[in-house]
């Protein structure tokens, strides 16, 4: 029974079917947001949704039966278990938010598509480096906020009247959303050279730090791809060795036999040192 389940779970067709059901389920969850669609096809969509959920549960149960405790040692398998388990919790009034969390089942595509899995692994691997950058930008952000409060707080209390107001204003400037008309131009009417402060702030906190974020993520993803390619090469090499190993052993055996035959023939020839 376990061998049969292992064959089904590891079959490529099973993975394609699960991926297709994930996409169909995502479409259904999107259609459920439309009141007109639910008025016409609500019962049908709910029935299909329940059928797909049942397939997901059966697939997870089969994987747990095959891998047992090893299933819970795999982070991606635990992620699948969590996402599907949320959908099984009754969405009562106290837990109505769980109905919205059913859309997390779409994220199972991450585990079904190796390329997406590598991207997420790269993002996770970049978190330590990103933490250092977040600390750096936090320090710079705080320094510029204190400076802005000291320089412009008295004249523009709505924008820089307190440290909190300055932090919020500088955050909007960092996003480059309406920072010219909403912040810089009003300040420059009173302080003509204020553009120097905001120019330096944007260059440092927006462009330079953002590029640091991108660099850390790209470097982490390159490391993940290099490791994945190395694993693939090692697997191919191992497979080739397993396939060609018996052939090499047979060739070595033939070489040994031929060497023994040459030695025996050399001893039997005249003048080889053997007696007639």
Structural commentary:
This protein has 276 residues and is mainly α. The chain has 2 domains: 2-112, Voltage-gated potassium channels. Chain C (Four Helix Bundle (Hemerythrin (Met), subunit A)), CATH 1.20.120.350; 114-254, Helix Hairpins, CATH 1.10.287.70. It contains 13 helices and no strands. The longest helix is centred in the C-terminal third of the chain and has 75 residues, at 194-268. The radius of gyration is 33 Å and the shape is flat. Mean pLDDT is 79; it is low at 272-276.
Number of helices: 13
Fraction of residues in helices? over 70%
The first-level CATH class of the largest domain is given as Mainly Alpha
- Please give the domain count: 2
Average pLDDT taken over every residue: 79
- Helix- and strand-based class? mainly alpha
Uncertain segments:
272-276
CATH architecture type of the largest domain: Orthogonal Bundle
How many whole angstroms does the radius of gyration measure? Answer: 33 Å
CATH topology of the largest domain: Helix Hairpins
Q: Total number of β-strand segments? A: 0
List SSEs in N-to-C order: HHHHHHHHHHHHH
Oligomeric nature of the chains = single chain
Q: What is the percentage of strand-forming residues?
A: under 5%
Compact summary:
With 276 residues, this protein is an all-alpha fold. The protein is built from 13 helices and no strands.
Topology summary:
Elements: H1 2-10, H2 12-31, H3 35-67, H4 69-72, H5 75-88, H6 97-100, H7 108-112, H8 114-125, H9 127-152, H10 157-160, H11 163-174, H12 179-190, H13 194-268
Helix pairs in contact: 1-3, 2-3, 3-5, 8-13, 9-11, 9-13
